[in-house]
Amino acid sequence: MARGASLMTTVGLLMVCANVSWAQQADSQAGATGAEPVIGPLTGAELFTPGFEGPQAGSYLLPSLEWTMYGNTNPNVSAGQSTIVAMGTSIGSLSLQRVGKHTQLNLDYAGGAFFYVSPLAASGKTGPGTSGTLQELSFLPRFSWRRWKLLLGDQSTYLPETANGYYGFGGLTSFDSGQGSGFYSSAFAVNPTLAPSQTILTGLSRRLSNMALAEIEYSVGERSVITATGTYGTLHFLDPGYIDNGIWSFLIGYNHMMSRRTEIGITCDQTSFRFGSLNQQQLYRSLMLDYGIQLAGKLSLQLSGGLGANQVTASPVGPVTKAFWSTFVSLLYRSEKVNAQIIYSHYLSGGSGVLIGAETNGAQLMLSRQLSRKFNGSLDFGYQHNQPLSQVTILQPQTRYAYWQGGGSLNYEMGRYTSFYINYSLQREVTNAPVCFTSNCGTVFLRQIAGMGLNLHARPIKIR
Fold first, then answer.
1. Lowest CB count within 10 Å: 38, 227, 396, 455, which one?
2. Structural domain harbouring 175
3. Over the stretch 129-165, which tens digit does the pLDDT of each residue have?
4. What are φ and ψ of residue 7, in 5° steps?
5. Sign of the alpha-carbon dihedral angle for 192, 198, 199, 203
6. Residue 202 domain-assigned?
7. How many domains does the chain have?
8. What CATH number does residue 286 fall under?
9. Is 22 contained in some domain?
10. How far is CA 328 from CA 71, 232, 234, in A?
11. Which parts of the chain sit beneath pLDDT 50?
12. Which residues contact 10 (CB under 8 A, 6 or more apart)?
């Protein structure tokens, strides 16, 4: 009861302060009655992004095909392995964006096949991982009325290994980064901390990941918005030895625009983790404060932080409740020639199929730029650190995982419908105790992946 009274008091103080700030700016920034905010809410599933959409944002259809050959020094993520293995992928993709007066639909699909040429295929190994399919689907419809908005979505992947740093869609990544036209999709980006975590290298292990979401926005006035968001994510492994998990999240948020470019918010979050057939659950409740600002319509900054309590219903030492501080920071820049993104997060995750829940720290940097009329390039860097929420005993702590990944790609437009690309990725994982993803065990796992390929595509087909 005391906790509920404290929450209501906090919300009430925030609303009073926000209304005072609005009153001070009403004369200079008053708009028409019922006007919608010029920037989206901080709370909920949508990532706070710049308002720039590019000169061709609108209704379109964009198909493409790609073929890539790779050299992989360690496909199974084995300790000490350095044999170069050749592999290939054949991928087709389709992107659809339909924009109406009160609706918007974004649909993206990519799917195809991968195969290893040598030495896995030559050795007669034909089990899971030597060949197979990969799929990725994103479905994001949006509906808006005078005061109400409804966001729906579903994002699914079927992959032969960990999604974080996965290289199988590398040609499509370089193609999407610019392809010489200054074209950008205006689909909303989903906060990555809501999706099932895949931030630990696990070798060749087939998995199906899915996240469904629904969010309702209600405009209280010209500058205040209330959001209610529900998400459900699952990570299911088709190969034995890993931990399936499911994640329910429910968030209620209040947002207030201090100005046309500045916004504050408060979020109440409840997240529940379930781990396959294991008799263990986790329940996390937190209160987050949010701040966001847009600069020049191309740069956005979001700062979020809050304190919560995580309850483990079954652990080696019995039920445990522990305080936890969560943080989320994003800095995004978007222009006709440059896309840049920096994200840092400290949050609770499902453990990536390896841990029964994890405390995760993640940092990600991505940059893509149109270098000339025919060349565009991209760079990316990521760091993830996962540690268990509890340890087995004082003398036998559970394994911690630190993962670094970096790489880049270069795309050249050979003609109107054809592009050639090269890409490279370096991945390294370090643990504090030996782990075995294959027959080889170790504490340091390293691999390098380089590829080249062709992409056949059309210019975005405008839809009326």
1. 396
2. 38-462
3. 578 899 999 999 999 998 999 999 999 999 998 888 7
4. -65, -45
5. negative
6. yes
7. 1
8. 2.40.160
9. no
10. 36, 20, 22
11. 1-37, 120-128, 173-184, 392-394
12. 266, 287
